[in-house]
Amino acid sequence: MAALPTLIRKKRDGERLEDEEIRSFVRAVTEGTAQQGQIGAMLMAIRLRGMEAGETLALTRAMAGSGRALGWPLAWSGRLVDKHSTGGVGDKVSLALAPALAACGCKVPMISGRGLAHTGGTLDKLEAIPGFRVSLSPQEMCDVLERVGCCIVGQSEELVPADRVLYSLRDVTATVDSLPLITASILSKKAAEQLSALVLDVKFGSAALCPTQESARELAQSLVAVGQRLGIRTAAVLSRMDEPLGHRVGNSLEVLEALECLEGGGPPDLRELVTTLGGLLLWQCGLAEVAEQGRERLGRALDDGSALRTFEAMLEAQGVPPDTARRLCAGTPPQRCQVLGQASVREELPALCGGWVQQVEALPLARVLHELGAGRARAGDPINPRVGAEVLVAAGQRLQEGEPWLRVHHDGALGAGGRRALQAALRLAPGPPRAPRPRLAETILPPAAARGDRP
Length: 455
Hints:
Structural class: alpha/beta
Helix content: 40-55%
Number of strands: 13
Radius of gyration: 22 Å
Shape: globular
Distance between the termini: 45 Å
Strand content: 5-15%
Largest sheet: 4 strands, mixed
Strand order of the largest sheet: 1-4-5-13
Number of helices: 19
């Protein structure tokens, strides 16, 4: 086998790497025999030269095989499902989707991440709940899935160790946006989960990894194609991320909004995304004849209380004291706030002038909340789960000067600069906006499904 510098040179010069050469590189990464400079050089060569579909598949397989794979009872075959989002502002979909899918008969071993930069993390939201444990052993995951049907956990040390090394170096080598590296990072973890079906929420817009719908479509097509070749029934939804999803941003506040969704209420855009993604998964694993039927079934699980009961059972199974889980899931809004705690200051920002709301921009809102402690600059930084904001207006609404449009939850750290940045997130105009563009823009299915099966 060629030495690592030879493989780096080969990819640098635009040549195709053979499957065994890719496996050799991943082995060197996993075993620690590759120097950081060599790994960074290979990442940059891949970023600049790209990879063919076969190379991306080989990289994904090699990364998935770098650690242990999860194993499940044969009886669950065909019903093991998961969802992945490329990250957004106010994205609390997983908190409602996992228990709703479990209530519909799926097994959901959801492996989630933490927030970094301006995007929130599912694990951080759940850890806002006192006692919630995100680290479960494979056997504990199996036990929870047997009893409850779903769990939401962090990536264990044994699962895809190559990805942890490459992921950390992508951030410091400016290779985060590489299509093959994104595809391999996401799907290697899903392959190690031994899934039956996967749905991807690929976001695009000013507060998303993909700036345009075209770039999101390209990523989604790569993910769906490689996922299918891994033997996972894979589909993707492209969703806009220019405005926050729902009305609340920040870890504790997003838990509260997810609970509203689990009760059959909550913001319409959140429910739409939860039921659309869930409907696709129910169709993919044969629990619905078409995706629309799956969507209706998932909506019933939200409306009849079965999804909320499953969420409560998941909380208890993952360490939350039963009385705490009960107060959170069945309590009044003040009782729920008491469980999660509240920031010491809840400050309403008034509109500086009158006009019609065109948009509330997600990115400046998220950046200010990040500075106030809602997010982290690097892995391991502490966060304040009580910091957040509630958007009090919607696009198309007429706003009078002095009328409140945003409620910021903080602990006294919001200064004049932060207020100016937040005010700039509110986009007003003299007249009403055009009809708002739908949150969900497009569905990407594998070629066979697109030709034949009805979604």
